[in-house]
Amino acid sequence: MKRDKKSKNLYRADEGSDEKGKEATSGITMAKDALSDAGLHFDELNKLRILDPEVAQQTTELKEECRDFVDKIGQFQKIVGGLIELVDQLAKEAETEKIKAIGARNLLKSIAKQREAQQQQLQALIAEKKVQLERYRIEYEALCKVEAEQNEFIDQFILQK
Hints:
Its main location: other. One of its GO terms (biological process) is protein localization to cilium. One of its GO terms (cellular component) is ciliary basal body. This protein folds into two domains: 1-38; 39-155. It is 89% helix and 2% strand. It is built from two helices and two strands. The chain has helices spanning 2-37, 53-160; strands at residues 41-42, 48-49. Strands 1-2 form a two-stranded antiparallel sheet. Strand 1 and strand 2 form a beta hairpin. It is rod-shaped, with a radius of gyration of 61 Å. The termini are far apart. Mean pLDDT is 84; it is low at 5-16.
């Protein structure tokens, strides 16, 4: 029977400890609630924190996401910077080629104008030579006529003698 009493006492002690544990847990919960109302919270390591653990976790996640975002923006800026440099280089090359093309076009226009001027000079020279040829032809005909007259005169003079 003594064992039964001891068993009962142990059982009762266990019940008491359960009740005490429940009371202690209830007290801790009330303390946590009071601290939560005051803006203080306990984390998973039972450290006192100002922020709610969920908010702190979300803040940490947001901070990591922001860091990733900033890194990605940095990479994006590097890529865009490289593209801008490439586009600037291509623009300079295009401008150089454009200037070369304009120079070549102006050179062709200049050559065409020179050829046109040369052609006009040659045509003027041809016209001048034609006029000179006509004058020489007329002079030749006149000289032939004079020669014929002189030959006729000589023939008549010889016949009269």
